[in-house]
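Entry 12.
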Amino acid sequence: MKSNFYANPAVRQRLIDFLGGEDLEHATCAYLARCDGFDFTPETLRPPADLDWFLDRGDDIARALYDNESLIAHLDIEYVNF
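Predicted 3D structure (tokens):
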């Protein structure tokens, strides 16, 4: 079930901005993936236009660093124990 937080138009637009576009059809990130500690498989990758699929399921979402228009660098130093 989609949270009221994610239904807020300003929040939704900020999510789309983070994906690299003005709307989901023009987002520049290559894909979205679940970010929940499960083993990665290429079959779980979905296009940015499937944002609602993740939100409806309540999944944590990871944005691909692979982008069609920008160079993105990411350094994440933390300890997470799923």
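Annotation: The mean pLDDT is 84. The helical segments are 4-7, 9-18, 51-57.
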